[in-house]
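Predicting holo structure, flavin-adenine dinucleotide bound.
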Amino acid sequence: MSQESMNLTLKIWRQANASVKGEMVEYKVSEISDHMSFLEMMDVLNEQLVAKNEEPVAFDHDCREGICGSCSMHINGESHGPDKAVTTCQLHMRSFNDGDTIHIEPWRAKAFPVIKDLMVDRSSFDRIQHAGGFISVNTSGNTQDANAIPIRKEDADMAMDAATCIGCGACVATCKNASAMLFVGAKVSQFALLPQGQVEAKERVQNMVAQMDKEGFGACTNTGACEVECPKGISISNIARMNREYLSATITK
Amino acid sequence: MSTLDSKVPKGDIADKWTNYKNKIDLVNPANKRNIDVIVVGTGLAGGSAAATLAELGYNVKAFCYQDSPRRAHSIAAQGGINAAKNYQGDGDSAYRLFYDTVKGGDYRSREANVYRLAEVSTNIIDQCVAQGVPFARDYGGLLDNRSFGGVLVSRTFYAKGQTGQQLLLGCYSAMNRQIARGKIEMHNRHEMLDVVKVDGKARGIIARNLVTGEIERHSAHAVVIASGGYGNVYFLSTNAMGSNTTAAWKVHKKGAYFANPCYTQIHPTCIPRSGDYQSKLTLMSESLRNDGRIWVPKNLEDVEAIRNGTKKPTDLSEEERDYYLERRYPAFGNLVPRDVASRAAKERCDAGYGVNATGEAVYLDFKSAIERYGKEQAKLQNLDNASQEKITELGAAIVKAKYGNLFQMYEKIVAEDPYKTPMMIYPATHYTMGGVWVDYNLMTTIPGCYAIGEANFSDHGANRLGASALMQGLADGYFVLPYTIGDYLSHDIRTGKIPTDTPEFEAAEKDVKERIEFFVNNKGTHSVDYYHKILGKIMWEKVGMSRNETGLKEAIAEIKALREDFWKNVSVPGGSDQVNAELEKAGRVADFLELGELFATDALNRNESCGGHFREESVELDGEQKGEAKRKDDEYAYVAAWEYKGEPSEAVLHKEQLEFNDIELKQRSYK
Ligand SMILES: Cc1cc2nc3c(=O)[nH]c(=O)nc-3n(C[C@H](O)[C@H](O)[C@H](O)COP(=O)(O)OP(=O)(O)OC[C@H]3O[C@@H](n4cnc5c(N)ncnc54)[C@H](O)[C@@H]3O)c2cc1C
Ligand code: SF4
Ligand code: FES
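Done. Tokens:
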């Protein structure tokens, strides 16, 4: 049903920076159209705050079309909010009703410290990738022809599915253990499924897992919550594949 | 007026790059360790350049405003990347790709650069596959291709609808390897706010740490600008929210000429604006035009009835619909190039035929395609008396297989089912062909300052072909810049580290700090977005899809007045020593307010219609092409490179005359 003008109560986590305590603060917004995206609703709120010379709510966002992985809000207890298979920026206000109260919080995880308000530090994800998320090939201009090694379509498609991870961190935020296994499993799987990834496979999985542990992410207890909240539908079969890779790397090394 | 030296090497076009590379000065590996290079931006262009320069042994410092290089705007590219691999055996070659690109650019690009681009395109695919980029493959395990943007060969490589993402993650992985080795020092959440020149050469930048607010000095022997395009000067565009012109504009103000700012690509198939709160626009892939038919109602009464909800588009009979592209361009129909399709949509909407509440939308209808595919399938499956329902079901399944993810995206945003009711689309700003002027080496007019990717004025002339931006970004970063920069840096092997405690850094830092302090202390009344939206409206209405002298002159005056008001009344809450998104936006919009004026000035100067730039004064007056764009090769076959002189209105024009030795100039015709 179309609602052109909703009035909403927002309860938003406000925290000036990493070293001070935060709290939930209540705001009201009105005349919210159901065609608006969730972030456009946040823009309306922020314009109101700026008009009063108050500090707007800080949050990460950039592409606003579900692909850069910047946006990261925990909405009414769910990572990226109530809709399935969408990021926060793709969520639309038609998923809410007039009079609703919406709770908005940042990702909560030890490895994702809050920077300000709803903005968190996800550099731990980058450091896991530095540890092994690459294939060691130089840009020489005389790499062998791309069609020299045929790759089974099924494998290429599965590698692609794993590679679509946007690095948003919803899997971590939704997991009661704050585990990063889905994120790491996706990268390990992408390369494990491709011939180009074989040479460094053992070191890769070991190094990435070691870095993940070092960053303070929790252990995986197979609750499957990550897969449910992942906006890109990354399958937990990638975690199983990573576990197999890890096991074989430790046995044969 | 001076002429610009493009430094294009002599010789046959097919041999230029090879011969040039063979003669270029090299830096020996031991010396590379003593040389620092700054790369601003880590999209496809900057990311590939940073990784390759680090592999070669230079010390790279890379900067991006996002929290990770993996989030650069390049991530959003959907359709694909071109390369003249000729895997399909359909007659493709470097020459053909070169030819298509020059023609597509309406003969306003530099031949030698485009040829080189086409030549190295094949290496890109090899490189990406070696990095583990999962391009689409066929059942034989080989790479698949699609045809894109109305060209005659299938040369576009793709990874589902997420090609940009996969290519960028490839660059990101190559960067990660170098970050781990300590060869790239990555500065995330940093924004470059000025370039620093020492003895006329680019020797560093001033950057703001976007978390702490600290203003930092960084020095290097060369500075590479890879900061993307400036489409957000229109406020609404398909670009990411943070895409901006600041880095490019700052180097312009310090001496780099800015070329062809008026060349903008307005993409015909985007999801229309739904209201004033709209923050950005979403692209729907061009491929939809292969099967969708574009129309508006013939009668204004029907338009009215659709807008007030008394009629649905599906209620209108064939006779009541105006398939205006098919009517005007019988030969190409719905597949006319992007600029032609965009202007035609605007023409109908300006005449009052827009089909949504804002009056800015036309239909893209798949009914005929569903019907056609349905009948085909029924025949294939030997269903002689298939019901209409069955035919629709069969046809919809085919359409779903081809465009399922796009239809789903549309439905998520608009909440309408495009299988049942036609999609609504409208043109939106998408890409900027103009940018910082560079020579054959990709060096700007500041020695030691380079520009690559969408940030330079590059290889696309007045109009870019689909799937060519990704190709250009990666060609620049992986295969061109790493060679050409060596020629320059070979003179710096004895220079030693560039100190930052010098008057030049001091002065640049002071300017940056003053501007920031102005913003946070100004007791203004209007938000940054208030100004950005007004600027966007001026640009869209007067410097948009169709331009004329009166409108452009008004735009120049209005932008100037708006800029003055901005510097008096802008309001930026919060402090400078913290995360402050309003402050970041203020700096970017301040630069857009200057660029916008130069943009309009350039459009005014170019009294011809070419590619994405359409001047109402320059149309064919009679014959078959009556009313269509008229290019004027005698007067305007040049690159307009503008030199900054204090105010955008005082910019001085320099011309780089374009020579076409290998391609004959022709008028485009789609009738
Ligand atoms: C929706 C969409 C779809 C597209 N699809 C295609 C396609 O299918 N095929 C194709 O060929 N092209 C496509 N394009 C065009 C193409 O994506 C871009 O032209 C290209 O990715 C630009 O790459 P880039 O590296 O030059 O810049 P960007 O990817 O824009 O990167 C800019 C970088 O600069 C940084 N930056 C900017 N300013 C500063 C600053 N002041 N300080 C520090 N860092 C800064 C950013 O953080 C970022 O890292 C598409 C574009 C859009 C919008
Ligand atoms: S696995 Fe899914 S939820 Fe986790 S970072 Fe990747 S895209 Fe986000
Ligand atoms: S803003 Fe890019 S995924 Fe949401």
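Chain B touches chain A through 76 residues (CB under 8 Å).
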